[in-house]
Design a protein that fits this description.
Helix content is 25%, strand content 12%. By secondary structure, the chain is α/β, with parallel strands linked by helices. The chain has 2 domains: 49 residues, no CATH class; 59 residues, no CATH class. It has a two-stranded parallel sheet with strand order 1-2. Strands 3-4 form a two-stranded parallel ribbon.
Length: 148
């Protein structure tokens, strides 16, 4: 986001079946249906939907990445490598390429995605707001919390 704010062309690659799940996190929603949260963290970015199982889509992604100065990815570890590409191959092709892999749990060794909800749950902070059978926290059971 900061790179885009500074004028870089940033292309956000999303799933083709609805894209980033945060598009639906609301209310509030913009007139086009996108959530205010999604718009706030994706400003100045161009989003495209890519299905990594479709060869034409994967070819498009690889072409874009091969022309980029910087690639920032947050796929689960091994996702690109299983498709015959990834940081090692990309940097062998273009040593000047800056490659950044983001992992929600560090080191690229986790098979878990790095969502905010998973991070809160794994460190126990989702139970700090109450919830559970004694009330408090969020209504509707979405807040986690220990059952007593």
């Amino acid at each position: 986001m900061i790179l885009a704010d500074m004028g870089a062309d940033v292309i956000k690659v999303e799933r083709p079946d609805g894209g980033d799940e945060t598009r639906g996190w609301g209310p509030p929603f913009a007139p086009d249906g996108a959530s205010a949260y999604f718009l706030s963290v994706n400003r100045n970015k161009l989003s495209i939907g890519v299905d990594l199982e479709v060869s034409a889509d994967l070819d498009l992604l690889l072409r874009l990445a091969r022309e980029a100065d910087v690639v920032v990815e947050n796929f689960l570890p091994g996702t690109l490598e299983r498709r015959g590409w990834g940081a090692a191959i990309a940097r062998a092709e273009r040593p000047e390429l800056v490659w950044c892999s983001i992992s929600g749990f560090g080191g690229g060794s986790s098979g878990y995605s790095g969502s905010s909800a998973r991070a809160s749950s794994s460190r126990g902070s989702s139970s700090m707001g109450g919830g559970g059978s004694r009330g408090g926290g969020s209504r509707g059971g979405g807040g986690g919390g220990r059952r007593r």
